[in-house]
Design brief:
Largest sheet: 7 strands, mixed
CATH superfamily of the largest domain: Transferase(Phosphotransferase) domain 1
CATH architecture of the largest domain: Orthogonal Bundle
CATH class of the largest domain: Mainly Alpha
Structural class: alpha+beta
GO cellular component, one term: cytoplasm
InterPro entries: Kinase-like_dom_sf, Prot_kinase_dom, Ser/Thr_kinase_AS
Number of domains: 2
Distance between the termini: 20 Å
Radius of gyration: 20 Å
Order of helices and strands: EEEEEHEEHHEEEEEEHHHHHH
GO molecular function: ATP binding; tau-protein kinase activity
Number of strands: 13
Keywords: ATP-binding, Kinase, Nucleotide-binding, Serine/threonine-protein kinase, Transferase
Pfam families: Pkinase
């Protein structure tokens, strides 16, 4: 497993497992190495701590403004999570007019970077990574959290083929004590949204992550997002439902056990869509390729 950077040695203020500064600081204790990514939220930079430059961190930088409460909510959810398939977050710093969320650095990029441009992942590697994804989602749900934006860009990879879930900007609590909270709006990338988001007024949280995980598996084994939205009017989704995709390459090369699992995960009927436990016990995840 890739070595995890040590938490910063001079936290501004301790808050549970991670640190958060409640007031602006005078000097940023990190120095930029290069940009890792960019999105609507801001940027993610690779940075080193000035007092220990050998340690590298991924730092999510966002402007203070209308999203301030969302940034704090994301950090407060993320800092409570501790699992081998969840990226670590170390601290949230307010500096000048920006928030800096300091996280573990994944040295092999995101899942999309691992998938060959004109090919697919080896089935053994896809199985290994998918097991880790399901373990991470299972842990999140056990903590009463749904991610709501599972996709290859939010799955980070380490050298030893270790996968970790990142980006909790859309994550929400779905339990209030023992009472499950229903959602009325979707989140994240629409191409990974479950069909009930588009067709129902209210829907459960955990099945959304399971559906998205099924599409991640499709991306690994087929190297494409087969539809833009899981709605009747989408040509790709309509072709999937009619079984027309299965006669095309590379669908014809997908392991039959994996194809069966995908079909059970991407099931519109929530009473038939596989649960985490059913996925864990599926023939494909139980199969030993060694």
């Amino acid at each position: 497993m890739a070595p995890t950077p040590k938490p910063p040695k001079t936290p501004v203020k301790k808050v549970s497992k991670a640190q958060s500064s409640q007031d602006p600081i005078q000097k940023l204790p990190y120095k930029k190495i290069r940009q890792l990514g960019k999105g609507g939220f801001g940027v993610v930079d690779l940075m080193k701590r000035t007092t220990s430059p050998k340690e590298k961190f991924a730092v999510k930088i966002q402007q203070i403004g209308k999203r301030t409460n969302k940034i704090k909510e994301e950090f407060n959810i993320h800092k409570e999570l501790e699992h081998e398939s969840i990226i670590k977050v170390f601290e949230l710093i307010q500096f000048e007019n920006q928030y800096f969320m300091v996280m573990e650095y994944a040295n092999k990029g995101v899942l999309w970077d691992l998938i060959p441009k004109d090919d697919v992942l080896e089935v053994e590697l896809a199985q290994k990574l998918f097991k880790q994804l399901i373990a991470g989602i299972k842990y999140l749900h056990s903590q009463g959290i749904v991610h709501r934006d599972i996709k290859p860009d939010n799955l980070l990879i380490f050298k030893e083929e270790i996968l970790k879930i990142c980006d909790f900007g859309s994550a929400k609590k779905y339990l209030n004590g023992d009472q499950e909270i229903l959602f009325s709006t979707g989140a994240g990338s629409k191409s990974f949204n479950a069909p009930e988001i588009f067709s129902e007024d209210e829907f459960r949280g955990p099945p959304l992550d399971i559906w998205a995980a099924g599409l991640v598996l499709v991306c690994m084994l087929v190297n494409s997002q087969p539809w833009e939205r899981a709605t009747p009017g989408d040509k790709g989704y309509s072709a999937w439902k009619r079984g027309k995709l299965f006669n095309e390459w590379p669908w014809t090369e997908v392991d039959p056990m994996a194809m069966s699992l995908i079909s059970w995960i991407l099931m519109e009927d929530l009473n038939r869509r596989y649960t985490i436990e059913q996925i864990e016990q599926s023939d494909w995840l139980q199969y030993d390729y060694d």
